[in-house]
Amino acid sequence: LGTGVTDTFPFIQPQAGYDMNNNELDPISSAIQLSMYFPDESPPLFTEFKLDLNTDTLYLTFDEVIDTNSFQHSLIVFKSEVNNSTCPTHRLSLMPVIHEIDSTSVEVTLVKQDVDAIKLIPCLANSTTDTYLTIK
To answer: Per-block average pLDDT, block size 10, for the chain (136 residues)?
Structure first.
């Protein structure tokens, strides 16, 4: 369903709209095949994150739906600055528990070893000014 012109057939009920003279749409008695299809080819963008070191939880937000089963935790890197820094970075090493909050938000319960490693770096994750995240 919804992957191309051969499996996408919209169905419109009369109450779906009206013309400028308040006439209902003419109901479609059988489905009409889609004439053009443009698949989603844009990757989801990582838009923001929150880190709670009291609960060892990382919250990630994207601009569109993501498949949490395909999420690669080992691509998450904590940094103290946007660009290179003298402060060490930390890449998540162990498999966290990942929960989908809604279609665009993900809750990551970090494992103790990763949380301890982040806390042992004195110049990392002390505030919003020294906590950055990359996914690559």
So the answer is: 72 77 78 80 93 95 88 90 86 84 86 95 94 91
